[in-house]
């Protein structure tokens, strides 16, 4: 597996060995403008996409990812362009020059469906019983729009979706307005914070919005019939409180609002997108398992969405921190202390096979539960080593410095080392990230009194 991203280095083809055949490193996309017309009953999509691109290296042509849909026409800077479309690759026969901008317009249509992969499973546009979800991580974005599908290429978006008036349309952005014309309602959204392709999403269903109090930004849950505000109270009803808590630890919530979508269908797992997360109806409950997952997806807005991996091998930077946030929320609410959670999950990992390299798990294991738990334990080991004050300061500055950008494990190691000063952290990171054997859990300091809400006390003084 390559350990270096090709971002800005030119070269053809994919820039990430975990998702071969996706992405083109010779250019970046600055902005996507998407116009979609969708018929729910027939799963028919008629669409146009305009991409504002900038050359990062000279190349004879420009390659877009688009799979399972038919291309009707392509224009570059307003003029028809020759192109070929096969195997998910739309090759536009127009030269790319380093530093130059060009506009690519693609008209396309068809019946979208998830992008299959033997190693990664299928991801992307998925029909529900009465609507749609898009769960694109890591390779599903080309199922619904032409894109430069690599995680280190972030762009802003404007998106319009026309759908039946009976259905709500939620996208990864801020709603600018909606208008009805005949048998369709068009929803217009903007995403002004740069977003990688896999975090863009479309959610269509017969939803009603429940607004939640207690957050520094608007927080809402879109619910299907049969799910009421009372059902949400123990878990989704606490999302405003969760945002306030995490913002107190890591810095301001990075987007203008937060939406959770609960589909009428059961889903295997929940998934975050930028400013929005998707849950199946099976995740509505009063138990800790539901609350834990709500906190996990929400924390991804900092770890994964504001600050995003440049290469899929660094997925622990998303999942390890999100899993650690579950433990922080557990302690905040009195469910369990972080120390108890760390002890429990360390014991669980010790019973499993020791064949995972956290800093480069390989595509087969990138979503293995061990990445999540060992990632969280790495975060905890760092906290134990540098102490609470230095730890939360370095995580906050990590988010602040890289918000809207792309990062690697090496960048995090350097950032933590700079914060730790004379204490050489290479042994800690070497053991947890770059060796397979599970390290011992660092000893906990003598317990502070009181442990409950101890974190908030730590920061109310600063």
UniProtKB/TrEMBL annotation:
Keyword annotations of the record? Aminopeptidase, Cytoplasm, Hydrolase, Metal-binding, Metalloprotease, Protease, Zinc
Q: Where in the cell is it found?
A: Cytoplasm
Q: Where is the composition biased (Basic and acidic residues)?
A: 439-452
Looking at the keywords, is DNA-binding present? no
Q: Which residues form the Aminopeptidase N-like N-terminal domain?
A: 31-199
Which reactions fall under this protein's catalytic activity?
Answer: Release of an N-terminal amino acid, Xaa-|-Yaa- from a peptide, amide or arylamide. Xaa is preferably Ala, but may be most amino acids including Pro (slow action). When a terminal hydrophobic residue is followed by a prolyl residue, the two may be released as an intact Xaa-Pro dipeptide
Q: Which Gene3D superfamilies has this protein been placed in?
A: Neutral Protease Domain 2, tricorn interacting facor f3 domain
Identify the main location.
cytoplasm
Q: Which cofactor does it need?
A: Zn(2+)
Q: What residue spans carry the Basic residues bias annotation?
A: 1-11
- Please list the residue ranges annotated as the Peptidase M1 membrane alanine aminopeptidase domain: 240-432
Which EC number(s) does the record attach to this protein? Answer: 3.4.11.2
Provide the GO MF annotations for this entry.
aminopeptidase activity
**Which residue stretches belong to region Disordered?**
1-20, 439-462
Record's family?
A: Belongs to the peptidase M1 family.
The name this protein carries in UniProt is: Aminopeptidase N
Q: Which organism is it from?
A: Brachybacterium rhamnosum
């Amino acid at each position: 597996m390559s350990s270096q991203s090709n971002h800005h280095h030119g070269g053809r083809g994919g820039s990430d060995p975990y998702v071969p055949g996706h992405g083109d490193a010779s250019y970046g996309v600055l902005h996507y403008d998407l116009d979609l017309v969708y018929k729910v009953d027939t799963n028919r999509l008629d669409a146009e996409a305009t991409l504002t691109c900038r050359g990062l290296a000279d190349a004879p042509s420009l390659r877009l990812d688009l799979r399972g849909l038919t291309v009707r026409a392509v224009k570059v800077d307003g003029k028809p362009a020759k192109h070929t479309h096969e195997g998910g690759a739309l090759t536009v026969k127009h030269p790319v020059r380093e530093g130059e901008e060009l506009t690519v317009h693609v008209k396309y249509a068809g019946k979208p469906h998830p992008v299959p992969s033997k190693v990664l499973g299928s991801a992307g546009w998925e029909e529900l019983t009465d609507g749609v979800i898009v769960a694109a991580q890591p390779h599903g974005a080309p199922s619904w729009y032409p894109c430069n599908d690599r995680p280190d290429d972030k762009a802003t978006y404007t998106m319009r979706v026309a759908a039946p008036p009976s259905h709500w349309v939620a996208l990864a952005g801020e709603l600018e307005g909606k208008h009805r014309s005949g048998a369709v309602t068009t929803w217009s959204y903007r995403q002004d914070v740069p977003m990688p392709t896999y975090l863009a999403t479309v959610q269509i269903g017969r939803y009603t919005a429940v607004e939640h109090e207690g957050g520094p930004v608007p927080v809402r849950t879109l619910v299907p019939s049969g799910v009421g505000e009372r059902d949400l109270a123990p878990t989704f009803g606490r999302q405003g409180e969760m945002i306030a808590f995490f913002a107190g630890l890591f810095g301001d919530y990075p987007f203008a609002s937060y939406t959770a979508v609960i589909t009428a269908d059961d889903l295997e797992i929940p998934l975050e997108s930028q400013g929005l997360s998707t849950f199946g109806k099976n995740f509505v409950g009063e138990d800790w398992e539901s609350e834990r997952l709500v906190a996990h997806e929400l924390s991804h807005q900092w770890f994964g969405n504001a600050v995003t991996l440049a290469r899929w091998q660094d997925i622990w930077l998303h999942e390890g921190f999100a899993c650690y946030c579950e433990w922080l929320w557990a302690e905040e609410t009195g469910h369990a202390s972080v120390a108890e959670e760390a002890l429990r999950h360390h014991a669980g990992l010790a019973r499993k096979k020791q064949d995972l390299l956290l800093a480069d798990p390989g595509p087969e294991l990138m979503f293995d539960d061990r990445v999540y738990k060992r990632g969280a334990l790495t975060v905890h080991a760092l906290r134990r080593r540098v102490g609470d004050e230095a730890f939360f300061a370095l995580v906050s500055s990590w988010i602040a410095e890289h918000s809207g950008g792309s990062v690697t494990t090496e960048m995090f190691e350097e950032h933590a080392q700079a914060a730790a000063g004379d204490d050489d952290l290479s042994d800690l990171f070497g053991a947890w990230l770059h060796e397979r054997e599970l390290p011992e859990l660092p000893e906990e300091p003598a317990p502070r009194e009181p442990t409950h809400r101890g974190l908030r006390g730590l920061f109310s003084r600063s």
